[in-house]
């Protein structure tokens, strides 16, 4: 039975991977709101394992110990609540990375206190909310049905019932587990959290994810709409993303793989077809990299080719396929497990975009998210003549125009556009602040716009940033 219609896309998302709560709050006010981001995806907020012996790897967060927010590497529950309020004040929704398929794995430590001090061992989490009322014990896991890792990835039952890299797999088919997961997510909704990335959705049957989503509160305080849900489904021959689109949106890894390859190769003409053969745009979340692919399939990342990667993210924000999600990272020259800049006890340092290991890719995209929001729903017309593989220009009918140049030479061209005559701010390299444009102003006159697109760069104008 189909669930209620999923909440529609709400504009561009930025993933501030591993940022402290107070750093996210500041960024919402200083940059994300003014740049036009609709939402920020934050790292998992629940109590997690602490792996001091392994140098506090980033993936601690994906091993929940309880659903308490009291103390994580990113701050306290108070810091978290303050972030949600301040981001909302800046017009930016907070989406939480919801780890609901599993709890901890055996790996390096099989037991211990978690980041907030809760004692646990694999298959035993006695106090999920810090009030002693609810826990998980062995019967709340699938270990009775499958007591080993997933081996046969062509068998959906196994992918959903056995253990993902040794992580204790929750019995999401049981009402007790569904109720606890909903308690956790609804406690966040009550604070104003406006959406969820469902981690490892493919590892749960769609009906289990749906049962949890059906239990969510219908309205987010301060936003007057239901929580937005998007699901991590790395589709393959055995499990398709379309099995989950009636529940919420789905991350489209087909788009991710293709845009990375095409931009790494500089084939912008082929990029015009991005989205064909994939999930319907209205069901998809599009992205160039996520925190996993940038480590495991680094085709195009901030480390392989920074300018081209920035160009790919800018193109995604203009093109109109899916709900775009921008990645913002830290550098990990110490290895793929390396956590964010931290103090000796594993507490994350405030994010600093002006130096150090925080890369802050989103800052380089300037006002492009505002373009995405302004042109939402407008058709795409390609404006270039198709003669150069590395160059492409588009119009989002009546509301925006953009040109992209994946070559070492500047590209000067005249775009014939249906945009109203006037002076526009180039939001690919700046934004409108206090009525003035922080980058170049471009004039549309008699339906013509002359642009010089920098090497490995973009130019973009839209009707929401006129002077
Ligand atoms: C995801 N999406 O579906 C996340 O995007 C991905 O980052 C998560 O894996 C995964 N699902 C589980 O939530 C990450 C790391 C893994 C790590 C896991 C749990 O990529 O490497 O596994 O989080 O922390 C680690 C060790 C494993 C070990 C396991 C259990 O790397 O060797 O078996 O912990 O102890
Ligand atoms: Ca599962």
Automatic annotation (TrEMBL):
Enzyme class: hydrolase
Catalytic activity: Endohydrolysis of (1->4)-alpha-D-glucosidic linkages in polysaccharides containing three or more (1->4)-alpha-linked D-glucose units
Pfam family, one: Alpha-amylase
Domain spans labelled Alpha-amylase C-terminal: 380-466
Necessary cofactors: Ca(2+)
GO biological process assignments: carbohydrate metabolic process
GO molecular function: alpha-amylase activity; metal ion binding
InterPro entries per UniProt: A-amylase/branching_C, A-amylase_C, Alpha_amylase, GH, GH13_cat_dom, Glyco_hydro_b
UniProt-listed Enzyme Commission number(s): 3.2.1.1
Domain Glycosyl hydrolase family 13 catalytic: 11-372
Similarity comment: family membership: Belongs to the glycosyl hydrolase 13 family.
Protein name: Alpha-amylase
